[in-house]
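Both lines are quoted verbatim for reference:

——
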Amino acid sequence: MHANILVVEDDDINYLVLQKILSIDYTVQRCVSGFACIEYCELHHPDVILMDVEMPGLNGLETCQALKARSDTKDIPVIFVTSYHQDHEQTKCWQAGASDFVIKPVNALTLRHRVAAQVKLKNQHTQLEAMAFVDGLTQVYNRHYLNSEFDKRLSYAKRNETAFALVIADIDCFKKYNDFYGHLKGDKCLTQVAQLIQSNLFRGEDAIVRYGGDEFVCIVPQVSIYGLETLTNKLQSRIKEAYIIHEGSELGYITLSIGAVYSDVVIETNGQRWLQAANELLCLSKKNGRNCVTIKEL
């Protein structure tokens, strides 16, 4: 898949020059102002930004500073395209958060090499970040991912006035399972359950997190109450169909208790409060005999 390069340039001719040089190797998009750039990056997260310095309204330096001040856009590399030749002028680019810069008139070979270098670094950073966010046993997201990303996802839903849901699923009587079958088989059970849950989260924006030893959190944006009920019921059905033998359970196989909260329009953006609310509903499912789902609006 081609990397996505965003060119922030208000001059048509300058844009066409950059677009012609880069379009052979990359997907090239354009914004004509700093404000449009910030709005675009909130939604699309390009791999590299080529930024003109001199623009009406919000100039390139101010735009770069605004991007670097945001947790969701600070890691996007910015290459300034500038006619600045003086040291003090170029220093301003570095101080604004630039990863590199190229001088106008642009040398095609230099531009290609510098963009390629930033794309490579960005890919390496993404791979390392992904490794840090993945649970080593189950290969789903870990708690570090939840701590880093959950509040951001809630804030995005609030800004865009979209629905949001959080699900906590717990394996019933898992301590008995570990005690009876041993930890190696317990690890295999955890991995199998994680993969079964993940297989039911079809959309790219959905995420499953191993929250505790045998607890899994599902982040499910833009879902209706009907969709949430369908999802949670399907999760239980898939676990039942897998029929993972559990002689310490009354039913004789692994089951899930589930607590879930949702909001048609997000108001509360504190992730800990969402987790606390979902966990209370999970406890209620446990008290009601396990292997059941409890859902409430937040």
